[in-house]
Amino acid sequence: MSVEGRASQTRDPEPPPTGGRLRAVGGIGICLPTAQPSPPRGVAVALGPGAERWVPDMSKKRVLVIDDDELIRETVRLALDHSGFEVTVLADPARAEAAVREARPDLVLLDLYMGEESGLDLCRRLKAEPATRSVPVIVLSGSNEPVDVLAGIDAGAVEYLKKPIDAQGLVAAVRSILKMEAP
């Protein structure tokens, strides 16, 4: 068979089985559901004839992701952003407490082990402080050891998710904790 014959028989890759699109993040593929282009994030507010401005859409749930691993931060950000959440990522756990107080997220996703800073200690401090006590925390960890799961829950986390992250499971857990329905 000629080179031209082989080339003409090549097909485009099949779409992911869920009807979504496959996006590679750092060599890892995650499947995101196909969606229409997103409208601008916000609401148009009329200021007079022919004048308007965009204000943030406060109906979006805000999620703060604190993880020292860039690949995890980007994977989680993509999955949640694509599902309609307003996502902020933070790599430095030393700034996390202040970020939670300032950003007032609806939920925090927190890595259990982050270099010098322990996610467990940070979770305990967030739960001890009246201003951040009511913010639900989901712990993310590469460990599935029962002692680590129990330590995360004892520190105040409402959920413990194992890395590598399953995007659909993550979105389902976040929606469940925030009592949201799928769009």
Task: Walk me through this protein's architecture.
The protein is an alpha/beta fold and 183 residues long. The chain has a domain of 120 residues: 3-Layer(aba) Sandwich (Rossmann fold), CATH 3.40.50.2300. 32% of the residues lie in helices and 27% in strands. It has six helices and eleven strands. Strands 6-5-7-10-11 form a five-stranded parallel sheet, with helices on both faces. Helix 2 links the parallel strand 5 and strand 6. It is globular, with a radius of gyration of 20 Å.
**What portion of residues is helical?**
25-40%
Counted beta strands: 11
Mean pLDDT: 76
Spatial shape: globular
Helix count, per DSSP?
A: 6
Strand content: 25-35%
Kindly report the spatial arrangement of strands forming the biggest sheet: 6-5-7-10-11
Please write the string of helix (H) and strand (E) elements. Answer: HEEEEEHEHEEEHEHEH
What structural category characterises the helix and strand content? alpha/beta
> What is the level-2 CATH architecture name of the domain at 58-177?
3-Layer(aba) Sandwich
Tell me the CATH superfamily of the domain at 58-177: Response regulator
Low-pLDDT runs of 5+ residues are 1-31, 33-48, 50-56
CATH class of the domain at 58-177: Alpha Beta
Quick one: biggest sheet?
A: 5 strands, parallel
Our Rg estimate from Cα atoms comes to: 20 Å
For the termini, the CA-CA separation is 50 Å
CATH topology of the domain at 58-177: Rossmann fold
